[in-house]
Amino acid sequence: AQSVTQPDIHITVSEGASLELRCNYSYGATPYLFWYVQSPGQGLQLLLKYFSGDTLVQGIKGFEAEFKRSQSSFNLRKPSVHWSDAAEYFCAVDTNTGNQFYFGTGTSLTVIP
Amino acid sequence: DTEVTQTPKHLVMGMTNKKSLKCEQHMGHRAMYWYKQKAKKPPELMFVYSYEKLSINESVPSRFSPECPNSSLLNLHLHALQPEDSALYLCASSQELRNEKLFFGSGTQLSVL
Description:
The complex is a heterodimer of chains A (113) and B (113). Chain A is mostly beta strands and 113 residues long. Chain A is globular and about 40 Å long. Helix content of chain A is 0%, strand content 52%. Chain A starts with a strand and ends with a strand. The termini of chain B are far apart. Chain B is mostly beta strands. In chain B, a hairpin with an 8-residue loop joins strand 9 (87-94) and strand 10. In chain B, strands 2, 4, 5, 6, 9, 10 and 11 form a 7-stranded mixed sheet that branches. In chain B, strands 1-3-8-7 form a 4-stranded antiparallel sheet, with no helix packed on it. Chain A binds chain B through residues 32, 36, 41-46, 49, 51, 88, 90, 94, 96, 99, 101, 103-106, 108, and chain B through 4, 6, 40-43, 45, 48, 55-56, 88, 90, 92, 97-107, 109.
């Protein structure tokens, strides 16, 4: 069965430090891959997406993600975290068959001064 | 206009009440979605409309009744809900059914007493 795994339930980083959020997917072919961010009580905002081509994709708010086919991963990175980045982050997969769109369980990010 | 607008933002209802959640977008999107999200969990797909026709119903109980009166509006009618139905209800839209980019509303925080 297709699935999306975010191994880290909660991450705490210092402001200015680098960040990497992990995402692994289980699917036979290369799916469409997304990262969304959600602030408390808010809807989800798309940070970036990968469909094909360059495996390093740039997103909004200084985020980037790298697709690694050999590792079935799509990790999100940011070189220097700001306090406003504290939020819940969801990786998502569209398997490109029918309308199968799966969210990972989310990673909660805390930023400390 | 790149917004998905949901009303009300907060709703408290009793188990015998009938209420409706509303969602509106003016981006010309032809696919609209209802998601349910419990605290600290990823969104779960409930319904998908494509060109105003119900495309997907993810085995949602009949106490939730969706309606798509036109291409810009999506309603979710609620009747005889249970306390476990308390959650954040998110509406989303996309250009077509392929989920290339989902635009999410801010959600309606529903409490069932």
